[in-house]
Amino acid sequence: MLSPIRLVSEAAELAARRHNGMARKGRGNEPYINHLAEVANLLATATGGADAELVAAGWLHDSIEDTDTTREELAQRFSERVAALVAECTDDMSLPKAERRRRQAMDAPKKSAGAKLIKIADKISNTAARIQTDLSAEEHDELVDYVEWATQVVAGCRGGNAWLDEKFDDAVKAARAVL
Ligand code: ZN
Fold it and tell me: Is 66 assigned a catalytic role?
């Protein structure tokens, strides 16, 4: 097992390489890695730096879904728990978007405590990225949709970390302020 610092550092590097060249949705087409860094840092802050595997999983949470990374590879390179956390945060991309979203909301309460924290951090990051003062009609509708769905998912994940719950509520308030 890697030391905590190596675990997080290796996870950040693998995430950077695997998501290389990808841009995230929302504000200014930021590099995808900005989203991963934000999620990992929210998790590190929320847990006072006590859970390196959770922070590593934060860096890697979209790697199975969006790149050719596999669960087995993550188990081998990091740990079974890191691999399991990322697998729990992976949507079945063979399903249409509406069905993936429906399942995320439905399955949220059944996730592990760690996966619930990753889900909330992901929704905080994605909500914040969609907030702009000069939204186009399309961006406006997308933000309305996203906030409604994210609120449902987070409702099934709450209670494990008061700080993260509050950060999500702040992000929703900030979104409503521009809608
Ligand atoms: Zn994500």
Answer: yes
Distance of CA 62 from the midpoint of ligand 1 (Å): 5
Sorted by where each begins, the domain ranges of the chain are 4-178
Give 106-117 pLDDT, tens digit per residue: 999 999 999 999
- Cα–ligand 1 centroid distance for 35 (angstroms): 7
Known catalytic residue at 165 = no
For the chain, the average pLDDT equals: 97
Give me the catalytic one of 10, 66, 91, 169.
66
Q: Residue 114 and residue 118: Cα distance in Å, rounded?
A: 6
Model pTM score: 0.97
Taking the domain 4-178, which CATH number applies? 1.10.3210.10
Distance CA(75)–CA(17), nearest Å, equals 18
Marked catalytic residue, from 10, 65, 73, 107: 65
End-to-end CA distance of the chain: 47
Task: Tell me, in angstroms, the distance from the centre of ligand 1 to residue 178's CA.
Answer: 23
Tally of CB atoms within 10 A around 175: 19
**SS3 for 41?**
helix
CA of 2 to the centre of ligand 1 (A): 24
Instruction: Report yes or no: 108 and 117 within 8 Å, Cβ to Cβ.
Output: no
